[in-house]
Amino acid sequence: MSTERIADAVKFAYWVPNVSGGLVTSTIEQRTGWDYEYNKKLAQTAENNGFEYALSQVRYEASYGAEFQHESTSFSLALLLATERLKVIAAVHPGLWQPAVLAKLGATADHLSNGRFAVNVVSGWFKDEFTHLGEPWLEHDERYRRSAEFLQVLRKIWTEDDVDFRGDFYRIHDFTLKPKPLNTPERPNPELFQGGNSSAAQENAGRYSDWYFSNGKDFAGVTEQLDNLRRVARDHQREVKFGLNGFIIARDTEKEARDTLREIIEKANKPAVEGFKGAVQQAGNSTGDKKGMWADSTFEDLVQYNDGFKTQLIGTPEQVAERIVAYRRRGVDLILGGFLHFQEDIEYFGARVLPLVRELEAAESNDQQLVASH
User: Which domains, from first to last, does the chain contain?
Assistant: First the structure.
């Protein structure tokens, strides 16, 4: 169990399906669209069903079942303008973006959305997206060193004037951004997220980002990552929040939920999953400690791109809610949910699962207060 800060209430985000093929590489029916009209309605549904964040994916060309892709920053801004409260996180690749240019875009998006734009810095797993665009494909830890500089430059440009930065990857000379984002000293906007599973990813997040995004993990995996992340953050007098990916299958009965999972895996698009496996596992296994993303993922795990089945948010509303609260107890601040049929599954989650989560959180809080008062 966590011995450090535990969130009063876990937050919820969802994967924006701005890429075709849904969130599982399977021929199972997915009543989910990748077009803007579907996603506009979905974003409005999500913010009215307890979701505070949405994460727009980044893919630049067809790959592994994702034939079509909408660009993440422009799609995020469109969703922000269609909603009132939802915070939308755009995934971006250092190496394909110049950080000062993204900082300018982010400041504008922040003003247009009244402070609801955020960025997820993705160091990159898909080599072809770089080489097909004539960009170098760096070794794993070098990609994370570049991301570290990228995060630092974004933060400095958003919060300082006359910025100078002399790094190995980026050079900024006496640059001042105006207008800056709608930030406060306590929590500069936009929020910065850093994804990854490796020690290099945790080092970056602990030093430079507001949030760390993890692939799907069981309780032991989450505890290991949180311990390391918090150690790094403490060493730099910082605190970082933790987001966990999970594919959510909540149904009226456990059998129905498990049958859905079984059908997803049985109908997996095997060539696409195997191709994805070959592309991503070199990333995890290329790290010194062999703990990078997807390093230990099985074929079944990879049917969901980001190991979402491992989190085991599968079952009745009661079972899913209890497991979410158990993750919160271990220090998870946010659940990033993927779904099979996004529109209807998010409505079901908001009506049937989220109220139970809040009830369980309130009960635990009351118990803690009683213990403290004796």
Answer: 11-372 (3.20.20.30)
